[in-house]
Structures are given as C-alpha cells and as structure tokens.
C-alpha cells in the first residue's frame, strides 16, 4: 500500500514529536514550520491529513488565527484532507468561529498525548 501523505505544521511546538507515530500509521510525513511553507507545499501535494496548531495574535490584521490561511488554501486547491488542530483551551471559542467557515476533523487540546493523536488519526 502506498503511503498516505500527512502535512505537519509545527510553528510553536511544545508537545511530543509525533513523527514516529505518523510513520507507524503508514503516513509519509512532511513537516514545515510555517503556514507559508505549508501553502507552498500544498501547491504540489494532496495530503490525506493535515496536523496544525491554532494560535491567535492581536497583530493579525485580516484574520483571527494562523489556521485560517491554511484552511483557505486547502479549500482553494479542493484538498479534502482531514484536519487535526492542536490548541490551547483558551482559544477554543475562537476556533469555533473558524470551524463555522472551514472543515476541521479533530481538535486536541494541550497537553496532547500520543494516544489522543492516534485516535484522531485513525478516525479520519
């Protein structure tokens, strides 16, 4: 079976390295450290799964989070990836606003453990 692609967008980190888990689940992993790099990669790839962090910054002028640009890119290229969002619980309300416009498969709040991630990925 050909490996499925998984795009991991790690901008802040502070949680376990899930690459070994992704590989055990037969994903070919691409890890980038910014939404901009993810957008560039998505021009040529159609991942089955995208794992990305959510954070909000008052300096964002035209959006409320880093995630919106990534989700808009998936929509623009008609990529039907399962999106798993890693988030600090204090941002959950803001994520609900984003979810009203974009599809999100799973939401994992920090601290994220390997079993929760595996369960989210297996349900896609």
What does this structure look like?
By secondary structure, this protein is α/β, with parallel strands linked by helices. It has one domain (4-122): 3-Layer(aba) Sandwich (Rossmann fold), CATH 3.40.50.2300. It is built from five helices and five strands. The chain has a five-stranded parallel β-sheet with strand order 2-1-3-4-5. Helix 1 links the parallel strand 1 (4-9) and strand 2. Helix 2 (35-42) packs parallel to helix 3. The longest helix has 10 residues, at 67-76. It is globular and about 35 Å long. The chain starts with a strand and ends with a helix. This is Response regulatory domain-containing protein.
Question: Structural class given helices, strands, pairing?
Answer: alpha/beta
Put simply, the count of helices is: 5
Major β-sheet annotation: 5 strands, parallel
Strand order of the largest sheet: 2-1-3-4-5
Radius of gyration: 14 Å
Mean pLDDT figure: 91
Structure characteristics:
single chain; 124 residues; alpha/beta; Rossmann fold; five-stranded parallel beta sheet; 5 helices; 5 strands; 33% helix; globular
């Amino acid at each position: 079976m050909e490996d499925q692609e998984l795009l991991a967008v790690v901008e802040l980190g502070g949680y376990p390295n899930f690459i070994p888990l992704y590989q055990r689940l037969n994903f070919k992993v691409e890890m980038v450290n910014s939404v901009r790099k993810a957008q560039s990669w998505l021009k040529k790839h159609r991942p089955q799964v995208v794992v990305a962090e959510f954070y909000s910054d008052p300096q964002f002028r035209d959006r409320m989070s880093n995630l919106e640009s990534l989700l808009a890119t998936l929509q623009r290229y008609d990529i039907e990836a399962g999106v798993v969002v890693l988030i600090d619980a204090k941002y959950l309300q803001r994520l609900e606003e984003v979810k009203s416009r974009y599809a999100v498969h799973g939401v994992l709040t920090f601290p994220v453990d390997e079993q929760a991630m595996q369960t989210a990925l297996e349900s896609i």
